[in-house]
Design goal:
The protein has 164 residues and is an alpha/beta fold. Helix content is 35%, strand content 14%. It has six helices and seven strands, in the order αβαββαβαβαβαβ.
């Protein structure tokens, strides 16, 4: 899938809504490459923010389950997703397995994820398996979840984490 097609899908979901409640875009390896900031001439376009905008609170999207596993999503795009999810009450199930959301150097999730998990109350299932989260990253993740008295998170998957 190329950048324009991915962004067009997201725009249609945001503006027109749909009856789609489960969106599986897994194993589209170049989505991660699409979701990097593009610089053309003097302009800058944040493709991750544009792509994930269909999940924003004011969107017409009805997606309750999102699978982006194996899409080579990196920490910056992961941050954009977490920021959008702060105000999303519809998305309950997120599969981000086999991406690169943790920062490579230290194995920490971007701060936007710990912020999200400390206050978001709608997500019930989150798969962060194989994202390079190391011990300190796990501590921060669990601390954020434990501090959220309103959490409905029932399933947290962290399997196959060879980097601990």
């Amino acid at each position: 899938m190329d950048a324009e097609n991915a962004l067009n899908i997201a725009t249609q979901l945001r503006n027109q809504g749909s009856t789609i409640v489960k969106l599986d875009m897994s194993r589209n390896g170049n989505i991660g490459n699409i979701l990097v900031r593009q610089r053309q001439g003097g302009d800058s376009r944040d493709n991750a923010q544009l792509f994930f905008s269909f999940l924003a609170g004011g969107s017409y999207s009805n997606v309750a389950s999102l699978d982006l596993s194996g899409d080579d999503i990196r920490d910056n795009a992961g941050s954009a997703l977490a920021k959008v999810l702060e105000h999303n009450a519809k998305l309950l199930d997120i599969n981000l397995a086999s991406n690169k959301i943790a920062q490579t150097a230290n194995g920490l999730l971007p701060e936007s994820w710990t912020d999200l998990l400390s206050k978001q109350r709608y997500i019930t299932r989150l798969d962060l398996s194989s994202n390079g989260i190391k011990y300190m990253g796990l501590q921060r993740l669990f601390s954020a979840i434990a501090s959220n008295k309103d959490t409905n998170l029932k399933v947290l998957r962290l399997e196959d984490r060879k980097s601990v």
